[in-house]
């Protein structure tokens, strides 16, 4: 084989590898952007999708089971937000590392619970074996305005140390509800 032909193949391979790398970066950026939507943007997208689907199907409605599922999910979400008082305002996810049986993703959540706002950052390490998938939260960081409440600061520090999000949300819901009651009571006496 001619050396100039071999060099041309090497150059083509190198340009294709560069193109693949650029496309992978672009894909990651698009994935990151598509995850960070507010509730209003999601609802607008759902409505837009419904209208587009109706146009394509000649004005026919969604299949009844799909529409029922969507309504059921919206009802469940509304119930959970009312029940817990927790409302997420944004979420972003970025894949930091991905191998065949291990994935590390960095998550960022923000929202509020009654009148308290919060922001969380954590890494989720998922490992997959033949039988199961396990997920572990690492590098948990919680940002809240605790003000002069040392109990809340201690609770946040303890939760960050143990990395237990379920305990955090359960306790936050209860604490924020009573915090709101105390605030209303003090306003009443002012």
UniProtKB/TrEMBL annotation:
It comes from the Eukaryota. This is CENPP protein. PANTHER family: CENTROMERE PROTEIN P. One of its GO terms (cellular component) is chromosome, centromeric region. GO terms for biological process: CENP-A containing chromatin assembly. It comes from Pampusana beccarii. It holds the Pfam family CENP-P. Keywords: Coiled coil. Residues 6-33 form a coiled coil. The gene is Cenpp. InterPro entries: CENP-P (IPR027801). The lineage of its organism: Eukaryota, Metazoa, Chordata, Craniata, Vertebrata. The keyword Coiled coil applies.
């Amino acid at each position: 084989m001619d050396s100039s032909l071999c060099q041309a193949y090497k150059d083509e391979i190198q340009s294709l590898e560069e193109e693949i790398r650029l496309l992978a970066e672009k894909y990651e950026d698009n994935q990151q952007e598509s995850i960070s939507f507010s509730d209003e943007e999601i609802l607008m997208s759902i409505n837009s999708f419904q209208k587009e689907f109706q146009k394509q199907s000649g004005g026919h409605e969604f299949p009844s089971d799909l529409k029922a599922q969507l309504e059921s999910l919206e009802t469940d979400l509304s119930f959970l937000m009312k029940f817990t008082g927790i409302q997420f305002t944004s979420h972003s996810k970025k894949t930091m590392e991905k191998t065949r049986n291990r994935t590390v993703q960095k998550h960022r959540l923000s929202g509020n619970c009654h009148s308290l706002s919060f922001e969380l950052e954590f890494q989720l390490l998922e490992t997959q074996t033949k039988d199961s998938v396990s997920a572990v939260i690492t590098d948990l960081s919680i940002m809240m305005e605790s003000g002069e409440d040392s109990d809340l600061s201690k609770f946040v520090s303890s939760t960050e140390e143990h990395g237990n999000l379920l305990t955090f949300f359960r306790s936050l819901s209860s604490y924020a509800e009573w915090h709101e009651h105390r605030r209303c009571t003090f306003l009443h006496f002012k």
